[in-house]
Amino acid sequence: MKAAVMGYGTIGSGVVEVLEINKDSIAKRVGDEIEVKYVLDLREFEGDPIQKKIVHDYQVIANDPEIRLVVETMGGVEPAFTFVKAMLEAGKHVATSNKALVAEKGSELIAIAKAHNVNFMFEASVGGGIPIIRSINRCLVADVVEEITGILNGTTNYMMTKMTVEGSEFADVLKDAQDKGYAEKDPTADIEGYDACRKIAILTSLVCGQQVDYQDIPTEGISKITAVDIKYAKAMGRAIKLLATSKKVGDSYSVMVAPCLLAPEHPLYSVNDVYNAVFVHGNVLGDAMFYGSGAGKLPTASAVVVDMVESAKHLDKHIPVEWHPEKLQLVDSGLSENRFFVRTTAEEAAIKNIFGDVEFVKAEGVSGEIGFVTSVMTEADYKVKAAELSDVIQMIRVK
Ligand code: HSE
To answer: In the prediction, which pLDDT does 178 show?
Structure first.
């Protein structure tokens, strides 16, 4: 069976590698060997064995009737969308790892795939090698999913773990993550939470079956977390993690991405380094956790190849996915309730006067400021009270 890979970067080359490493076991499962006939890339890869497969025009792939499976690992919305649409319209199954494409065009591409009796699959777009998309689409279907909370970004989880273990500053840890190849040269999407935001938008779209626009999700990253915040977290016996949370409220969901202070009893407290985990609560299932390699070349490529194998086993069948284009109006995030950890230079009396009963926190070696945790209140109430305080240095939600 002939396949094509569009984008020979980290994940695309990983897909070629996985198909080679596990050639025999994959052939047994499919009943045929999957052979990569074309690799679409702007570069030539002079001297690399892949060079003879390189093409620069996506129409070569779209117009070749031998190609049944196409992988998209280019990243970004365009030209990936144009290329993927052309492949689906040409009757080819597509598997992608591209969360930006899936978050923005997922429902549209699923509809195009359905119209052409092929599949648009995107297991690798969330949680790397963790099979969370398939689990939501196929396994958790007896439930109404009431909560999904995930550590969905490996880079930032690595950074928060390292800051906690070593007490180091954000900039040093970011440089280390870049040196190790976890963070991109431009790490904005990871550290500002945009990557996790797109992933929770995809998961929420799948549990509600409607379009959740990532632009509607309040998103805070970890770029303002400092070594002093980590000292306070340690004083509280907690860990700071970047969480992407989606909670059912009435007929909609309340969704947010933000760093949070987790207690050791929280199911995501022990998820460290580049690992990802997704906690799911279903109304009849109760709790479930999915944990594993959430980023990186081979884990992500593994998930892409799973999609290829599934399409290869159902060549003449569209496997339905419930994700319709009607937009879901998310619940006003101002109504969601939390306790808030606050650092301020304001006086104790002023804090009590504004916030009422609070718990003060002392962190070793920190002076000239006060740390405290509020009682449970809405985001909107917190905002009003914080504005009354003379100086908020930091605020982190407490779970
Ligand atoms: N930059 C992403 C991460 C890659 O660190 O999780 C996987 O989507």
So the answer is: 86
Our mutation pick for probing the ligand 1 site, out of 195, 197, 293, counting the most ligand atoms within 8 A of Cβ, is: 195
Check: CB of residue 33 under 8 Å from CB of residue 88. Answer: no
Predicted confidence at residue 7, as pLDDT, reads 97
Among 153, 203, 272, which is best to mutate for testing ligand 1, by the most ligand atoms less than 8 A from CB?
A: 153
pTM, to two decimals = 0.97
Q: How far does residue 375's CA lie from ligand 1's centre (Å)? A: 34
pLDDT at site 180: 83
199 belongs to the catalytic site: yes
Q: What is the tens place of the pLDDT at every residue in 155-209? A: 999 999 999 999 999 999 999 988 887 776 789 999 999 999 999 999 999 999 9
Place of tokens 């209140």: 377
The set of protein residues with a Cβ atom below 6 angstroms from ligand 1 is 128, 153-155, 190, 195, 294-295
Q: Phi-psi category of 193—alpha, beta or left, where left has phi over 0 and alpha has psi -120 to 50?
A: left
All residues at 6 or more sequence positions from 28 whose CB lies less than 8 Å from its CB, including other chains:
none
